[in-house]
Every structure is written in C-alpha cells, then in structure tokens.
Design a protein that fits this description.
Blueprint lengths: L1 E2 L4 E12 L3 H12 L9 E13 L9 H22 L6
Antiparallel strand pairs: 1-2, 2-3
C-alpha cells in the first residue's frame, strides 16, 4: 500500500484469500454498509500478514523532503486531470 503523493507506504507479505460470496463476505460488506459505504463491492481480499515493512521511494535518496515530493506528485496528477478534462469529447451526448 503506497500513498501516491508522498511515495511512502508499507509492504505486506502473507497468505491471501479472495471472498466473492458467503457468510464472511456478507458480514464484511455489512460492516462497510453500516459505516456509510455505498461502493459496489465485488470481492474482498483478506490477508494473514506474516511480515510488514515500510516502503520509501528512491525519490528521498537525495534528501528531498516529503512536502516537496508531495507537491511534485500532486502537481503531476493535477496536470494529468486537466489534460484529461480538456480532451474529453462533450459533443457525443
């Protein structure tokens, strides 16, 4: 799991199970529904974690601060969003 703006996160290793139906799947979906989630949940991944380790991008190797890296990536994604928005064909409605 990585924060795409801070370029930091965690790596988990273990055994995974994918649930798409059944009592455990239903209970987990209900858990999220009770907390307001309206997302379509097609599957749930359960991981029995054996190891966890922090993950830090090589972008930090030169001493760049987290704030600077965050600004860089937020700007990058904002530029992508702007380019996408200007290239969307709005005439085919």
């Amino acid at each position: 799991m990585v924060d795409p703006f801070a370029r930091k996160g965690y790596r988990f290793k273990g055994t995974a199970e994918v649930l798409t139906e059944g009592p455990q799947y239903d209970a987990i979906v209900a858990f999220y529904r009770q907390r307001g989630s309206r997302a379509v949940i097609k599957s749930i991944v359960l991981i029995e974690v054996d190891q966890a380790a922090s993950l830090i991008s090589p972008a930090y190797d030169d001493g760049t601060s987290e704030a600077a890296i965050r600004r860089q990536w937020e700007g990058h994604y904002a530029d992508l969003q702007e380019r996408w928005a200007t290239n969307v064909d709005t005439t085919s409605e």
